TrEMBL record:
The lineage of its organism: Eukaryota, Metazoa, Chordata, Craniata, Vertebrata. TPR repeats lie at residues 77-110. Gene3D superfamilies: Leucine-rich Repeat Variant (1.25.10.10), Tetratricopeptide repeat domain (1.25.40.10). It is found in: Cytoplasm. It holds the Pfam family TPR_16. InterPro entries: ARM-like, ARM-type_fold, TPR-like_helical_dom_sf, TPR_rpt. It comes from the Eukaryota. Keywords: Cytoplasm, TPR repeat. This is Protein unc-45-like. The keyword Cytoplasm applies. PROSITE patterns: TPR.
Length: 226
């Protein structure tokens, strides 16, 4: 019963997926997994579940399911590709590249994999360039704001505005955290100058929004505290 039932449920899931019923397909694949599928079938079902989660834009679960498929079959190129897609959406480009490189090594002539790898490489290059540029900007803003000779100048006013804008961006917030920015913002608050205090508070509001850099910083901080 199990072998035929697993096969039938997998086929049912495939049909539902083709029709755009990703929740229904997910249910069918899950039921098949519960019937004692073979390791090979489990790999297929997990990678199919990953495809459903990608369509449903649940990228954490897509990564988890693809990883389970890869655990069963390290050469499952479809699972590797789906995990790379999930990792890209999650912003973990360095890990996505590793999966794509594996895909290309398994299927060197696959143009989809080649194009995806070029795309990821381009994104990483842009991110590195932007982060480098952002690092310089953040350092420059703090230098101007903490320079007593710039007190009350238009240059300092622009620097405070730019710092607030940068704090609202992932790259800017990450740099502020990495460059001891919270302590530097405390120094701005301690100046007692209304404009600088307001800039510091607005910057803190920006970096405390729910973007990735803040979440990662909190996780690291909590681990250190524990």
């Amino acid at each position: 019963m199990t072998a035929s039932s697993v096969e039938q449920l997998r086929k049912d899931g495939n049909e539902l997926f083709k029709c755009g019923d990703y929740e229904g397909a997910l249910t069918a694949y899950t039921q098949a997994l519960g019937l004692g599928a073979t390791p090979q079938d489990q790999a297929i079902l997990h990678r199919n579940r990953a495809a459903c989660h990608l369509k449903l834009e649940d990228y954490d679960k897509a990564e988890t399911e693809a990883s389970k498929a890869i655990e069963k079959d390290g050469g499952d190129v479809k699972a590797l590709y789906r995990r790379s897609q999930a990792l890209e959406k999650l912003g973990r480009l360095d890990q996505a590249v590793l999966d794509l490189q594996r895909c290309v090594s398994l299927e060197p002539k696959n143009k989809v994999f080649q194009e995806a790898l070029r795309n990821i490489a381009g994104q990483i290059q842009e991110k590195v360039s932007y982060m480098s540029s952002t690092d310089a900007k953040v350092e420059q803003m703090f230098q101007i704001l903490l320079d007593p000779q710039e007190k009350g100048t238009e240059k300092k006013q622009k620097a405070s505005q730019n710092l607030v804008v940068l704090a609202r961006e992932d790259a800017g917030a990450e740099k502020i955290f990495r460059s001891n920015g919270v302590q530097l913002l405390q120094r701005l608050l301690d100046t007692g100058e209304p404009d600088l205090m307001l800039a510091a508070l607005r910057t803190l509001v920006g970096i405390c929004s729910e973007h990735q850099s803040r979440v990662k910083y909190k996780e690291i901080r909590n681990k250190r505290q524990n």
